[in-house]
Design goal:
7-stranded antiparallel sheet; Jelly Rolls; 3 domains; mainly beta
Amino acid sequence: MSLVICSNRENDRPTDSESSIYEPWSFRNGLSSTYTIPKDAQVGLHSCKINLDGTMTLSGNEVFYQYFGRLLDPDDDEEIELSSSQPIATPLSDIQYKAGRSGRFEDYDAEGVAGLVKQQMNDFIFHPNLKDKADCDVKRDNTTNEFTGYDFTYDQYADESTTTIPKVAQAWTLNPADVKSITSGNPQGSRSEYPGGIYNGSDPSVIAFNPTLPWKYEVAGGEGVFTSVRRANKDSPFATEMNAMINTALPLSLYNAQMTVDISDVNDADQDWVVGLSRFCPDLGQAQARSFAPANYDATRGTDAIDDLFCDFQVRRYNGLLYVQHLAMNSLPAFDTYSSVDDTFTKNLDYWTIPGATLTSQYDLAGNATSFEKVRFTAKGQTLKIEMIDDRDSAVVVYSFDESQSKALQLPPIHQGCWCLHPVLAMQTDATKSDGVMKIEVFEGCKDIVDYGWWGDDPKDHSGDLTRMGWFEFGWYGGYAIDLLRQLEERYWFDQNDKTSGPFGNGQLRYASVPSSGDHRRIGYVAGTNGTGAKVAGFSEVLIPGTSKLYPSKGNMTAKLGFNQPYDDSFTHVGAGATSLGVKFTSDAVPVFKSGQSIFVRVTNLTQRSMNAFKGNNSQIIAHLPRFDGQSETGRLYYEPSEIMWLDLDNSEALKVSSFDLSFVYVNEQFCRALTGQSIVCLAFRPKPASASAMGDR
């Protein structure tokens, strides 16, 4: 008997330098000189050593949660109402569904589970600066290569200079009247047919009607140009409308990003205008609203509202005066008699009453028509700064966050419902005025997000991945119970009537910003005295694999992801310095993977024959490895049969071989990709015994 030792690598230590012919489940050992196998020989498995990760069976019902917001202290009995964020359910069933395996049990190795988790982390995080910046990596022992758990990493998009002028095809009207039937038999269709203000449908009756909207949007000279088209017919229903559009190409970065809009043309023409930032609302709001808005928005509510144009934050000119407005809620039952107490509405911010304000009275744009030419928003974390830029390119701060200001003089935080903010432009027009123009000069969107937003340039075509948009939009289309949004905007920090709740006793929370200096300049990070950073500042990512009351969740992946607790808010920083923005969470324990299938050894370049009846054909399998070796199911396993099963090579002449090709397969003869590190196979060869030859000759 002779022995041939085969292996894919020298040891179990991880390496990135190996080619595909040295995989632990399939490898070739080439020989420096030919090896001669005598005629009438037999081959058998003497022994083998493998490193088996095993597999994890997923039913498609697994779910974990992610959170980015104010950290809660269980020792102080804090609750989620203190936060402007909500834990986000992150189901693995979504992956199963997309792959056509909904409701089926599937086995995944450690890398397979990591791939699923990574994809879902990125799909369901929804914050624009975290989108597509998450990762899940398999951890392995540097010596044995054995699986030890997972690392979960969240990085942040932090480009402070790249402008991303919104695309033409993603400009949608905010006026339902734009797309309503205006003449019997000539329907205007829906706004999905009017990207950029131009009809792109194929209905001949609509084409004959020449249904262009009373505005258009185009990109010219590196700027986004919004034009209000003058109507010759004074009786047109568009004649006195506020022509308004929102562009959903990319959300604004919340890492010290800017949007600058030139309003000089419409302002000089004595036309009212709006420059705003808003989430995207795919459908109509309440019946009394004339804008595309959330169902809980009431345009008729409140005494501050100028009109019914929905927007989260806006600067506008109305009757010649400069206004700052924001979305709000007021819980007073007697606030009005027309709507629910938790409906949102548009509220004015009296910016000229802010202590230390540059503008000490409501600014008269009509009386100073040539003074201000541009509006600039700057977003940092949850905060906004609003500036007006004059004809000398000097900026005047109209509003800037200061936690010492009273709630009535504060813009609400950029909360989870409006994480993804888009530019809103609007201007008044009528049949007597020339076409007005507004220009987006700067818009710093999160350009690293892959395939953000709508498919086929159609906001009604949501046949694609609903997770490629904001949290609000995802919920609007049924991704979660829409009541979660309503509940978020019912919390004390959004309620204009609540001036006593919260940690400061003034109805406000601490807004997350972006540090201007120091290391780890992340959204929400402030260096703490104990070195834990955002843990002290109280704003960070939280990974929630289990069921938690503190962060309301019903996860069931605690053990499968290697955690001993339902949530983890203790991270380590990835790297050092100001540009180090990543945080890492690490498994507490080794997730349990089991060997769920039998493994077989196959030699593919010799002439032995076996029969795989399951497949119904001949095979080159030489041995079966039991599921258990008597000690463990996974890890470094050694197998030596008590008696070698010899297989004839049926070689009437001596065989000269220059390599040995080996693989480990399941009963369906697919590779066992759960193997890692070093695989060793010891092949035994012997001449066919005479007694066996005699039996074969009978």
